[in-house]
Design a protein that fits this description.
Strand content of chain B: under 5%
Number of strands of chain B: 0
Shape of chain A: globular
CATH class of one domain in chain A: Alpha Beta
Radius of gyration of chain A: 18 Å
Number of domains of chain B: 1
Oligomer: heterodimer
Number of helices of chain B: 9
Distance between the termini of chain A: 37 Å
Strand content of chain A: 25-35%
Number of strands of chain A: 10
Helix content of chain B: over 70%
Order of helices and strands of chain B: HHHHHHHHH
Shape of chain B: globular
Distance between the termini of chain B: 20 Å
Largest interface: A-B, 29 and 21 residues
Chain lengths: 260, 235
């Protein structure tokens, strides 16, 4: 499946110099229910990063992810995902670049996991034969084989969440936005499912429970009062022997000083 | 593909079945009551007009609550993030309940034409009856558009409640306008008035055509408002 970054460019050493951004936000302002949650977000996330996004305000990361996914509009500011400005591309291109899983799975609960995945493949313009192969692979990868033909309403929240993640990953998106995903899953199973591969793939994982994301991320972003106060590799946290927790991120942010 | 999804979503939740069966049930009751001698001449048509008014209101409430509920559940967002254009989503969620209501209302009026026809001799001929049917269906489109606006703007419960309330107010205004100015006013919803007056009305064509045109005009304006709001709505 093609990506928005041509293979020739990806193999080029120039890539190391250019350091392409998978996600870029500039001067992003946004409110929800009259409350300003994003107050001038400037954030650049390089291709291939696995980023934990936390905030002192619970709703802020979710809103940022919805803006990146094109589900909400900022009051001002510019957003680009995989090098494409929001809404500047056609159906197939945009769907290929982006995978999003929100706190609500949003799936029709009368559908079976196999139907959901096939439908997601159709929406991403995947050809029938290729779709069949991808659906079978996803059913196996996300442990949905035994419930593949059972309607979601009869399989519980954990299956619906896994199906939503499988649907988001079906077309191998370059950028994956995960908002508190798989909260109904067992911790070990959750970590297994969220260990998403792909050298070119960028993952932005919003979580208010950073400790539960241990081993899944390599970069930390913390929002406070609607601004980015921390954008650092996880090694900085480990070097100071701070815990992967909201408190740990706040201490690290204070230690490193303002983000440029 | 999106239309098929919206249809299955509506069908499985029994929304569409209710919208098809309710008007037919009204016509069957009117026909049965007329043939059983429960209603006097003309009363069956008045009953049918009120009944179809209620089912039109039901369609609008289903439009509002269905759209808003599926938005709150995240289903519309699930589609939008897969780059399904928002106007396509809005159109599917608008057209499907409306189509079910069309089938139900048109069937009900066909049943009424067959069972209550003796009461129409000397008043509504075939052309006038078709024009009245068009006016009733067009009023349904306008009412569903009110539901669409509410569904885009409000939460599920609020949208259903406000749509019902708004349409009852509009219905009262239509009745008042028809009583004060006569049935020739041709306001949206005048089709119901023509139906209620089926045994006595004369030359209904101009009123029916005017009402149909105005209803569709109102519906188009409300559709544009809904699409504009929906394009910026957080999903």
């Amino acid at each position: 499946m093609p990506t928005s970054t041509p293979d020739a460019l990806w193999e080029s050493s120039a890539l190391d110099v250019l350091g392409p951004a998978a996600i870029a936000c500039h001067g992003l302002h946004a409110s929800e229910h009259g409350h300003r949650l994003l107050d001038g977000i400037d954030l650049v996330i390089p291709v291939g990063a696995r980023v934990l996004l936390s905030s002192t305000e619970t709703a802020a990361p979710g809103l940022l992810l919805r803006i990146l996914a094109g589900l909400a509009l900022p009051s001002s500011g510019v957003v680009s995902v995989a090098g494409v400005r929001e809404s500047a591309t056609g159906t197939a291109d945009w769907a290929r670049r982006l995978g999003y899983v929100g706190p609500q799975h949003g799936l029709p609960v009368w559908m079976t996991p196999a139907e959901v995945l096939d439908f997601a493949g159709q929406l991403a313009d995947v050809a029938a034969l290729e779709r069949e192969r991808l659906v079978e692979a996803a059913l196996g990868r996300y442990g949905l084989g035994t419930v593949r033909d059972r309607p979601l309403r009869r399989s519980g929240a954990a299956v619906a969440e896994r199906t939503a993640l499988a649907a988001a990953m079906l077309h191998e998106p370059e950028v994956v936005l995960l908002d508190e995903p798989l909260r109904s899953a067992e911790p070990a199973d959750r970590t297994l499912r969220l260990r998403i591969g792909g050298q070119r793939r960028t993952i932005l994982l919003a979580s208010q429970l950073p400790a539960s994301e241990e081993g899944l991320v390599d970069q930390l972003v913390l929002l406070d009062a609607g601004r980015v106060v921390l954008n650092a590799p996880i090694s900085e946290l480990e070097a100071r022997q701070l815990p992967l927790s909201l408190r740990g991120l706040e201490v690290l942010a204070a230690d490193l000083g303002p983000v440029e | 593909m999106i239309l098929r999804l919206a249809t299955r979503q509506g069908w499985i939740s029994y929304r569409l079945l209710a919208l098809i069966l309710a008007p037919v049930l009204m016509a069957a009751v009117a026909g049965g009551a007329a043939s059983g001698g429960v209603f006097a001449r003309g009363q069956a048509w008045q009953f049918l007009a009120v009944g179809l008014g209620v089912t039109t209101l039901l369609t609008a409430v289903v439009e509002a609550a269905g759209l808003s509920g599926d938005r709150e559940r995240g289903m519309l967002g699930w589609l939008a993030v897969r780059a399904v254009p928002r106007p396509t989503i809005l159109t599917a969620w608008f057209v499907v309940p409306l189509a079910a209501s069309f089938v139900g209302t048109a069937s009900a009026l066909a049943v009424a034409r067959m069972t209550l026809e003796p009461a129409l001799i000397g008043s509504l001929d075939d052309a006038a009856y078709l024009a009245t049917t068009a006016a009733v269906l067009a009023a349904g489109v306008a009412a569903a558009s009110v539901g669409l606006v509410m569904g885009v703007l409000m939460s599920r419960f609020q949208a259903g409640l406000m749509t019902g309330f708004a349409l009852m107010l509009i219905g009262a205004a239509v009745v008042a306008a028809s009583l004060l100015l006569g049935p020739g006013t041709g306001v949206p919803g005048a089709g119901f008035w023509l139906l209620a007056q089926a045994t006595v009305v004369s030359d209904p064509l101009p009123t029916a055509f005017l009402s149909t045109g105005l209803s569709l005009g109102v519906a188009a304006a409300l559709w544009v408002v809904s699409a504009a709001v929906f394009s910026r709505r957080s999903l």
